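W.,

You were right to be curious about this one. When I first looked at the sequence I had no strong expectations either way, so I just let the prediction run and decided to look at it fresh. Below is the sequence, 201 residues in total, followed by the output.
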Amino acid sequence: MKEFWEEAFKNKREMWGFEPAKSTVLTKDFFIEKNIKNILIPGIGCGRNAQIFRENGITVTGIEISKTAIDLAQKHFGKDLFIYHGSVTEMPFDKKLYDGIYCYALIHLLNKKEREKLIQDCYNQLEENGFMVFTTITKKAKIYGQGTCISKDRFEKFGGLNMFFYDRETIQEEFGKAGLLEITEVTNVYPFYLIKCKKQG
């Protein structure tokens, strides 16, 4: 996985541009409404989904597997954007608790065990009454079912990228014990679910 993303960022550099995804704008509004001030972004990439939070007075800490992506993020958004270099599967990187966590288009790239660990690790790093928001691809995406089937609803595509496709039942199963609050649908490049959870105090 690390080699895949290092190559992806080296070859395509600013491939996604630097405008935040639609679900990021919605999450920013949600975090402002909930008075969130300090967030963690696992899989921060080149920072395009971080800057909108910072512009609204929210402190951002990131985790990113690709050193190239970290360099791009700090080039465009400043060296004061602190990012841990490593895989989200190695969380936690600090003992800090955050009042918000935002995880964009990442969890569906992991296997079942890794997904469960990521959800639990994120939940563990939330302050009481904190919120975490995940976005993930849905089975409504046209690419669902394409590529080599690895396991139920999980396919290898794009030259080595493994993707799991969620439905509401799977979300309930994986996020149900992590304070699942709400599931909404939003279209980014593909149809996504926006999954909101709250850590009850």
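Here's what jumped out at me. The first helix runs from residue 2 to 12. And, maybe more interesting for your project: The longest strand covers residues 126-137.

Coffee later to discuss?

I.
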